[in-house]
Amino acid sequence: MLAFPFRAQAERLTTDTALSDTLKVTLEDVRIEAARLTETSAQAPFAVTSFRISEERRLSAPGLVLTEPLRGIPGLWVNDRNNFAVGERISIRGMGWRAAFGVRGIHILMDGVPLTMPDGQSIMTLIDPSFIKDVEVVRGPVSSFWGNAGGGALLMSTANFSPEPHVRARVSAGSFGYSKQDVEAGFNVGGNRYQIYGSRLWQDGFRDHSRFEAWRFGGHADITLDERSRLRLTAAVLESPASDNPGALTATEAAETPDLAAPNNLAQNARKITRHGQFGARYRLLLDQGDLEVQTWGLARKLQNPLAFAWIQVDRLAGGLRSTLQQEYQDFSFGVGFDAAIQSDSRRNWVNEARNGGDQGPLTLDQQEDVYSLAAFSRVKIPFGNFAFSAGLRADWFDFRNSDRFRQGGEDTSGSRSFGALSPMAGISYQSGDWFTYLNFTTGFETPTTTELVNRPDMTGGFNPDLRPERTIGLELGTRSTLSQLNLTLDAAVFTMYVDDVLQQFVAENDRSYFRNVGATRHNGFELFAEWMPVRMFTLQAGYSFSDLTFDSDELVQAGEGLKGNQLPGIPKHRISGYAEVRPGSLQLRLEGDYSASYYVNSINTAKNDAYTVFNLNASWISLPIGDHTRITPFLQINNIFDERYNGSVIINGFGGRFYEPSPGRNWQAGINVRFS
Predict the structure, then answer these.
(1) Three-state DSSP class for 175?
(2) Which is it for the CA torsion 67, 68, 74, 76, positive or negative?
(3) DSSP state of 55
């Protein structure tokens, strides 16, 4: 992970002995995992943010949603929908704006295992924010690194190896029936390191029909094979027997009765029942002038998803193999690699009968959906003086296959779709004293997902033959610096992206989402991040994002209205997020703030979500000793302390004006951690 911004630098083991007087910090040269090859904090010619979340922050946060560990990263926007059945909306530089559920346009990994499947869809329910230790975000097209992702990459790690054996447990409770229990343990045997963790979360929810229950477990093993090679094993499991879906509300309902559920969702008991398990193994061999990595992964997922329009069941098996070889010489460095993956889904749809709280009715679809992907990539970097030039190229091939087992009316709708892409990138960087400046050209693409391909407006089986991949071209100029004498970190970037054949969701009268290509969009923006530690006990951090995202094609029409020049829905032009933290002794106080300007919620720009500003207050007592080997950390968090009435997320182009997903007023969580060592 890259030791940037400053909070990451201050929390890593590179602090001068004079820290108490000068706060000077020496940076680690840490490899950026998302770059796949030889990029470090001093060399990356693209916008990247990486940090380690301190144990103090993890212990004092409720561990409910990803807004907790990801707050303040410019360009990255995480919307808490207060609806675990569809998960958070996540976008980077506007990419991902169209996702009706899950995450699109961003390649996401947890502990090295992709949560983004070969078809490009990401599911986040497995992640427990309480255990996320390291975060890395690449802001901008990353198809030259990861393939099927046009907007960026998000890597998270729960590995938390400790030099000494320990056991940690936490219990917490709060508003809306929130109840959570965590446990974590670490130990070392013969030079090998091990960690296990688990949690159970229950919440009735702020809105009607929004309860959620999840059991999550995981573990890591870091094994030394010899002086040059290591093996890292990881596994994670999710069991979620209850995840109700309250749906979206109209503007009037959201303003007057924000705790309601959408009538159709309530009548047909829309919800999700999920079981998920995954594993990963990574072998790393250090060479004389580089290294070789080979990684394999696999997962199984069972989903039952009664919705207002259908009862859906998907049984998924997926797996893959990745490898990279890199070499570094005095005059240049290079790397090559390949990726291979398979996704196999058995999908069945039934009518969701509006009786007895939603029952399976007649079978309407039964098909096997398989996605195969292969990719090869290479990159080279050539330094010359204070400059460095880098270039890369990736070739991807995808094969989508559908086998119709239902054959309604005797018709076999089996078929296939194939997609391919070449993704070049090039960048140049310049180092001048404390300042690092870069200019890059990047490309990206996104295939339609299997869900988007099978949701045909004619309600027949098979794949939609008309959908095409999105393609992105991006240009970015940025600079960053750590001014150690001022204890100040700055990061600024300006970008432009052109996205063609945009895949857009639309909702029909049956309340079901369909997709179509709607021309081109243009994404222009500016991002600024600053973190300042004027004295040891005080930290101020803020990230600002300006996003001017518009439709850019004359042929774009919706509801008889031309869209060219309209703003993309779902993304505000201005957004600020950050926190101020003061720590006198063992007491830690943190004031978090989020501001969003108003933004449109439909493509024809006739309806808006109002601007809002929300503050949270967190107080904790860090590591209060109880005996020789036991420490406790109690915490209290008050969210939305000024009781702001706002909608934290929206459904883009929702049918019947049902755009809005309200957020709760003032609420709280509190808990206590106990650590034995």
Answers:
(1) helix
(2) negative
(3) H
| Rounded Cα gap, residues 47 and 140, in angstroms | 7
Residue type (1 letter), 455: N
Strand pairing category for 561-562 and 574-582:
unpaired
Q: How many Cβ atoms are within 10 Å of 387's Cβ, its own excluded?
A: 11
> Can you tell me the mean pLDDT for 251-276?
92
CB 644 within 8 A of CB 613: yes
Say how far apart CA 26 and CA 15 lie, in whole Å.
6
* Cross-strand pairs, 561: 558
Question: 């009316």: which residue's tokens?
Answer: 409
Burial status of residue 559 (CB atoms within 10 A of its CB: 0-12, 13-18, 19 or more): exposed
Q: Which residue has the tokens 């303040």?
A: 72
Spatial contact of 304 and 344, defined as CB atoms under 8 Å apart: no
- Picking from 237, 234, 199, 231, the residue whose alpha carbon sits closest to that of residue 220 is 234
Average pLDDT of the residues in 637-650: 96
Query: Could you check whether the bond before residue 424 is cis, i.e. omega within 30 degrees of 0?
Result: no
**Plot region of 534 (φ>0 → left; ψ -120 to 50 → alpha; else → beta):** alpha
pLDDT exceeds cutoff 70 at 356: no
Mean pLDDT value of segment 439-460: 82
How much is the average pLDDT of 335-339?
94
Cβ-contact 315, 346 below 8 angstroms: yes
DSSP 356-410: TTSEEEEEEEEEEEEEEEEEEEEEEEEEETTEEEEEEEEEEEEEEEEEESS-GGG
Q: For the chain, what percent of residues have pLDDT higher than 70?
A: 91
| Lowest-pLDDT choice from 43-57, 174-188, 293-307, 433-447 | 43-57
| Burial class of residue 393 in the structure, from the number of CB atoms within 10 Å of its CB (0-12 exposed, 13-18 middle, 19+ buried) | middle
- Quote the pLDDT of residue 407: 84
Q: Distance between CA 332 and CA 384 in Å, rounded? A: 9
Contact present, 621 and 634 (Cβ < 8 Å): yes
- Looking at residue 95, the DSSP 8-state letter turns out to be B
Determine the Cα–Cα distance for residues 395 and 393; give it in Å rounded to an integer: 7
Residues in the chain, total: 677
Q: For residue 292, what are the contacts with CB-CB under 8 A and spacing of at least 6?
A: 284, 285, 323, 324, 325
Query: Which residues 6+ apart lie within 8 Å of 585 measured at CB?
Result: none
pTM: 0.91
pLDDT at 524 over 80: yes
CB atoms within 10 A of CB 485: 9
Per DSSP, 12 falls in state S
The separation between the first and the last C-alpha atoms of the chain, rounded to the nearest angstrom, is: 27
Q: Place 570 in a pLDDT band, splitting at 50, 70 and 90.
A: very high
CB 546 within 8 A of CB 573: yes
- Whether the pLDDT of residue 439 is over 70: the answer is yes
User: Cβ neighbours of residue 454 under 8 Å, at least 6 residues apart?
Assistant: 347, 365, 367, 369, 402, 461, 462, 463, 464
Residues 6+ apart with CB under 8 A from 558: 506, 518, 603, 604, 653
Whether 451 and 422 have beta carbons less than 8 Å apart is answered as no
* Residue corresponding to tokens 């002086």: 227
In terms of pLDDT, which residue wins out, 423 or 464?
Answer: 423
| Alpha carbons 144 and 122: distance in angstroms, whole number | 19
Q: Contact, 243 vs 249, CB < 8 A?
A: no
Phi–psi pair at 455, nearest 5 degrees: -80, 80
- 322 token code pair: 């990745």
